[in-house]
Amino acid sequence: MSDALAAQPRKIVVVMDDIDRLSKGEIRKVFQLVKACGDFKNVIYVLAFDKAVVANALAGVQGGNGEAYLEKMVNVPFQIPALSAGQLDILLRQTIEEFSSRDPKYNWKSKRLNDIVSVVASLFDTIRQVDRFANVLRVSEPFLRREVDYADLIALSAVQLVSEPLYRFIGENPDLFIDHFLNMYLRGEKVDGVERDRIEAVFSSETVRKKAEIMGLLKLLFPKLTRLFDGASQRQWSNIEWRRQRRACSDLMTFVSYFQLSLPESDISVAELDEVLDQASAVQHLDGAIRHFESRNLVARLLLRLSELEWSAFAEDVKAILVQTILIHGDEYVALHKSSDIFLEVIGLLEAVLRGMEVRSRFEAVCGGIHQAQSLFIPAALVSLEDQRRNRFLDTNGGGRSNPGDPESNPLFSGEQLDVLESKAGRLLAKAADDGRMLDSSRMIFLLARWEEWGERAEILEFVDRQLTSVSRFLGFLARFLDRFNPRAILGIGPAFYADTLTRFVDARTIIEKFDALRNNLDMVTYDDEQLILELTPAIDALRREADHPES
User: What total number of domains does the chain contain?
Assistant: First the structure.
């Protein structure tokens, strides 16, 4: 073999990379092999390794130290210079620029992304780390395309590379990194201190290096950390911009998707949103697409995801169909979600779409929707919110809330347009009073108050009088003034009763006399009516005391 190699016209170069990644015993065997074959002619060995690691593994070989052994073995040592921080930053940005072609619609020039990339670059020391980072992005991106914010994905991928235990800790403890809306009333400095201590305990671990850089990076991802560690006084929770950008801090479901490389089953993908919007050619088609999510109990999530879209970029006819669909069927969508009241999601979507429309087309869409509406509450709520913005009916709505500094509080319609909408909404409620929908609505109290503002009081009194003509109607009418979900009911004190609203439309003595007549003749009522009488009795007794002693 020696003669055959010597006769070769060309040199043979044997390259061995990553020797330092072998076990101690394997490193020794490699150098024993190279030493045994090192004298062959025309053969050159290029050995790439971390000198400190290999020298430590070779310590004690032939009774000497590892450094001395390497000096005997290696004829031409070459120390590869470490990349400067600036060079690593350039390399990282080149990697991200290549990656950006996968989603050209994303804002790859944003200041936030630039800030995150600058911090990420400070976490890396070698080309290998940048290469591994690129591999993580290539693997994860296809699963999350258009479902996450790429700046957050880049940051969390970097954390995963430099500290797997910390990355795992973040994924397993979303409550430490996300502020929830309800928590602002339930949490205090004591709870914040406990959470701060838990995070600091993880950062004190030896497995987390470059602690200051990583903490700075996480603060860019999770605003809650600026409150916990920098003393920011104001709590921050998910807002529309965070959700629109699909940032990790926006809500729990979005947060989870970053760590399991897929959307939770309780979330809705961008592809599914596209499929819904493809049906926005007619109200009945779009309505069917929305109801499709009822079986997964995801109607509320669908409406929330739709409200996060940048509606100014959509065609006016698509927006008009969606507005009319919500106005016509919105009450039904609320009813579909038996486990929670999704009014805020429905009205939030409606207003988000309207603010993305041209002024004239938004007015026409709302007029058309109210004219065809099967819903009562959603159309009435939309017009009522606009009344508040224009400071109308202050005695019943508690004052206006228009705020020039807040775009979402600015009126959607002109005063003249609002006059028309109030008239249309009033006629809608009058029709509902005639066909029975008013009494069937769980929001009857709200609807009566709005009808009083927009309609003829004589029509309202006529509707109320009709409810006094039979036992079932009368008791059903009174039951609408019970609020079984009031904190009084939850605490077992009894449901709240809106007596003040009731007595705006019917005399208290009339209610008391008719109720007493029924209570004194329970054998004349059905079992269900008897149960209603028992439930209403404390409220009517309170009404009686108020009528007998109004000064108290």
Answer: 3
- Residue 196 lies inside a defined structural domain of this protein: yes
pLDDT at 128: 85
Are both 119 and 235 inside the same structural domain? yes
CA angle, corner 379, sides to 237 and 470, nearest 5?
115
Using alpha carbons, select from 321, 295, 296, 366 the residue that is nearest to residue 306: 321
The answer to whether the CB of 101 falls within 8 A of the CB of 117 is no
Domain boundary residue, one of 53, 73, 93:
73
Relative to beta strand 482-483, strand 496-497 is: antiparallel
Query: For residue 400, is pLDDT > 60?
Result: no
> For residue 440, is pLDDT > 70?
yes
278 assigned to some structural domain: no
Same-domain status, 94 and 189: yes
DSSP line for 354-407 = HHTS-HHHHHHHHHHHHHH-S-SHHHHHHHHHHHHHTT-SHHHH-S----TT-G
On whether residue 387 sits in a domain, the answer given is no
pLDDT at 404 over 50: no
Give the three-state DSSP class for 13: strand
Task: Please give the C-alpha separations between residue 443 and each of 88, 203, 450, in angstroms, as whole numbers.
Answer: 62, 51, 11
Instruction: Indicate whether 129 and 247 sit together in one domain.
Output: yes
Amino acid at 412: L
pLDDT of residue 490: 42
Residue closest to 9 by CA, chosen among 48, 41, 34: 41
| Claim to verify: residue 154 and residue 39 sit in the same structural domain | no
Q: pTM for the complete prediction?
A: 0.70
Q: Residue 504 in contact with residue 452, Cβ under 8 Å?
A: yes
In a domain, 202, yes or no: yes
User: Would you give the DSSP letter of residue 20?
Assistant: G
Query: What residues contact residue 515 under an 8 Å CB cut-off, 6+ apart?
Result: 478, 533, 536, 540
d(CA 323, CA 159): 43
The mean-pLDDT minimum among 185-199, 207-221, 246-260, 340-354 falls in: 185-199
Same domain, 192 and 155: yes
